[in-house]
């Protein structure tokens, strides 16, 4: 493993430790389903309310752990 991967791994571990379980689960789901939309995340995560998903997505975007690609209608979320 290169030094760059080790640094990224350490940074990600540090960021993940600061996240609560709901945010960790959301981030992991996006990692496993790149390009997923908020409504699909809600369905996958035990019918978590869409407003809760949107709030958590905003937190992860502000922490620069995920980003959104595409239009509002057809775009989705991806891990950085």
Which characteristics define this entry?
mainly alpha, 80 residues, globular, Arc Repressor Mutant, subunit A, 59% helix, 2 strands
Quick structural gist:
By secondary structure, this protein is mainly alpha-helical.
What CATH architecture do you see?
Orthogonal Bundle
What structural class do helix, strand and pairing data support? mainly alpha
Give the strand tally.
2
Mean of all residue-level pLDDT scores: 83
The percent range for strand residues is 5-15%
Q: What is the CATH third-level topology name?
A: Arc Repressor Mutant, subunit A
Query: How many domains would you count in the coordinates?
Result: 1
Highest-level CATH class: Mainly Alpha
Quick one: overall form? globular
Radius of gyration: 13 Å
Largest sheet: 2 strands, antiparallel
Strand line-up across the major sheet: 1-2
The percent range for helix content is 55-70%
């Amino acid at each position: 493993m290169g030094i760059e991967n080790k640094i990224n791994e350490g940074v990600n571990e540090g960021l993940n430790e600061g996240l609560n379980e709901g945010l960790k689960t959301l981030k992991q789901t996006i990692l496993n389903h790149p390009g997923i939309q908020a409504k699909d995340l809600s369905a996958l995560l035990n019918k978590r309310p869409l407003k809760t998903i949107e709030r958590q997505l905003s937190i992860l975007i502000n922490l620069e752990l995920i980003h959104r690609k595409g239009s509002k209608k057809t775009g989705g979320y991806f891990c950085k």
